[in-house]
Design a protein that fits this description.
Elements: E1 16-20, H1 25-37, E2 43-46, H2 55-61, H3 65-69, E3 72-74, H4 77-80, E4 86-90, E5 101-103, H5 104-116, E6 121-125, H6 134-137, E7 142-145, H7 157-171, H8 190-207, H9 216-230, H10 234-248, H11 250-261
Parallel strand pairs: 1-2, 1-6, 2-3, 4-6, 4-7, 5-7
Helix pairs in contact: 1-2, 1-7, 5-7, 8-10
Length: 277
């Protein structure tokens, strides 16, 4: 999906992403792209199975090629995590070892607190086909899980990295959950909306739609609420005023009725004849 602003400096920092024995250069590249999407840039590779550096990794990373280029390669997990204070491992719950199990959303809050305190955390991701081995998981402080469909929990490497990176990003994001993209449009002021309501209700009174006096207040409120929920722009109110004008202009309406009544009637059906005629 397009949308990268190359004029801006990419956000960076956060937990290190450690890929253990990644098999394909393309997977490393797409994982780096997922990292850059969420502002992570510390990529570490432990015994990559593909020849490194790999041209396909940079191509798959698209705009995140810089993250691939500065990735560090280590012969062992212990060396890859030597400078980290906390390590999380992404894998299903292990019954054969006692470790805290935490989902990515809760872990992201912990990661934010660690980084804010000046500590360095990291997240381990296993090989694409087998995941992390028991010895790999043994170096981690806690296990990270994703509450997916229990009948199908398989993620590819880039997906797994994106889930963790996205939760990290959202844990520190202050963007409002809903933003109205106004562009050049101007929101209608209350007077414009009230003037429209007054005219619409007058026309509905005249045509008899609001003839029930007891129900009229409720009906008026319901109609107004429909338009209030729309969050009308100034030009939209003008359009609605024009619609009311088009629907209520008497000469126009009468011409339309006359045109319909002037249409020639269809050919009369032939009378049926009896057999003897």
């Amino acid at each position: 999906m397009a949308g990268t602003d190359s004029s801006r400096d990419p956000a960076a920092g956060g937990p290190a992403v450690i890929l253990v024995e990644p098999q394909l250069g393309e997977n490393i590249g797409t994982a780096a792209r997922a990292m850059m999407n969420c502002g992570l840039d510390d990529l570490r590779l432990v015994r990559p199975r593909c020849r490194w550096p790999h041209s396909k990794a940079a191509r798959a990373a698209t705009g995140a090629a810089a993250t691939v280029e500065k990735a560090k390669v280590f012969p062992t997990i212990e060396e890859a995590i030597a400078d980290l204070n906390h390590v999380f491992a992404t894998c299903p719950r292990r019954r054969d070892m006692v470790k805290p199990v935490i989902d990515h959303r809760a872990a992201a809050a912990d990661l934010r607190a660690m980084v804010a305190a000046g500590e360095r955390p990291g997240i381990l991701f296993g090989p694409e086909r087998t995941g992390l081995e028991n010895d790999d998981v043994g170096v981690a402080d806690a296990l990270l899980t994703v509450p997916l469909n229990p009948d199908f929990t398989s993620l590819n490497l880039a997906q797994a990295v994106l889930v963790a990176a996205y939760e990290w990003r959202m844990a520190g994001d202050a963007t409002p959950g809903r933003v109205l993209a106004l562009g050049r449009a101007e929101t209608a002021n209350r007077q414009e909306v009230l003037d429209f309501f007054a005219r619409l209700e007058a026309e509905l009174d005249e045509c008899g739609f609001l003839r029930n006096k007891e129900m009229r207040p409720t009906m008026v409120r319901n109609i107004r609420n429909i338009f209030h929920r729309a969050g009308l722009m100034a030009h939209e109110v003008r359009t609605l005023q024009g619609i009311v004008t088009g629907l209520t202009q008497r000469p126009h309406a009468e011409r339309a009725r006359s045109a319909r009544s002037a249409k020639p009637a269809g050919k009369p059906a032939r009378p049926r004849r009896g057999r003897g005629e």
